[in-house]
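Give me structure tokens for this 545-residue protein.
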Amino acid sequence: MERTPESRADVCVVGAGPAGALVASRLASDGYDVVVLEAGPRFDFEERPRRMEEAIRPAHDGSVWDMGGERDAFSASGEQYYPLNVARVKGVGGSTLHWQGMVMRLHPSDFDGSHDNDDPAWPIDYDDLRPYYADAERAMGVAGDADNPFAPPRDDPYPLPGFPPSYSDSLFAEACESLGISMHGVPNARNSEAYDGRGPCVGYGTCQPVCPSGAKYDASVHVEDAEAEGATVLDRVPVQRLETDADGRVSAAVYATPDGTEHRQEAREFVLAAGGVEIPRLLLLSRSEDDPDGLANSSGLVGRYFMDHLFAGAGGTLDARTRQNHVGFLTSECHQFYDDPRQAVEQVGDDETVVPASDDALSPIKLEFLNYAGPSPVELALSADEWGDTLLGDLREAYGNSIAMGGLVGQPPRKENRVTLDTSTTDDHGNPVPDVQWSWGPRVRRSMGRANDIQHAILDELGVDVSWTAGPEGGGSGPAYHHMGTTRMGTDPETSVVNPQLRTHDVANLSVASSSVFVTAGSMNPTLTIAALALKCADHVGERL
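Here you go.
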């Protein structure tokens, strides 16, 4: 590929994940000259079956999407170790290449700060993003049903019908009904029927880390759309820094090609869409005599308020077949405890009420009914020492009765949680690597414990022999790898990095399309909100052009 700069560009987009792809597609379709600079490679679709095979082999250790090494080095110096590379992908498509594909809207309470905790309000409300949510659902091809009584208001049906509940979901249903807990469908960015030139899901079950059929949406779809509209997409060109002119505007993105040669891509507008870790890193790397603390950082908040969702779960075995691992994604969940995490759960069998242990603030709680609990038969077979009939007998005994629940709780924005530069370690181009300084905080721990209490009540009602719990004391809990909050949105340049139009306060032609602009984390998977904000950002950039 020729990786020289385009002589004319209206917009330069940094990053070809879901945000960058949607920004590029919308602006290119509006007739603007767009260049996308992506740090990682372009992956061959025909290679996906091989990557799937790698993923299911017990001996496989590492990323099937080629993450790791000097290029992706990082530090994690915080109170809690943050395993950054576990769920990152650098390449065309970004982390949607291996995501699970759940796409929920944030609730109005997430935006207006009306949760029963100290989360601040966003400078936009749900209605500001409502039309963009609908656009994002159509763009991705979201399959869902209108059966969630706790969902925020919407104007139109989902583009595709939802997936039916799995067999293990049906096992949970009776227990949840006994406890007065509502189950409902999960909106998924995967085709329940043919859509947008892609076929329906055929059930490989390896959604994480790879969908071989392409039925699950990934951002390469909109990268290709952008290219069809005339956009130029360069892969393996990590941006080293942004340069500014005498007026303080970005004049060029300086990128390196695989042979180490540096080039300058000039444009009228620049959009950063490289995620909640690499965006603040790039801004900090772009420090200069005029911006000694980094670009767009007059507030000192670039990299601050890093947030993630924490996983809470529990599971075990049931004296019945559960058909574990027949479905590789969620088909049922519960948002009943999202806006009201203190809601009591009546355990009918033993006349006991499950309530929070204290009156202290809690995060919203999203509960999940896991279809992929327990090991797969392939994993058990390939790791066993037995053969033939003995192995078959062991598989019949060991496989098929695992069952589990999961859930997410969000962190409050904490200034001490941040992404900064580790100058003692450098990447393959000699740049300081990102350092993630992360801690949980008491509210997250309380919320995880509350989620575990509800999960145990359901599992006990179902008759599960609980053998593991992932909660506030660790034991398998950890981040959901949803990087949020490092270039937060606001109206005050002293307390935020970007304004409600996603443009940085300090630099007139620099915008950010990413979960890095999130003010709070909520507890919903963030990708649909990322997509909605990206489309909003594109419209504002188009207005300025």
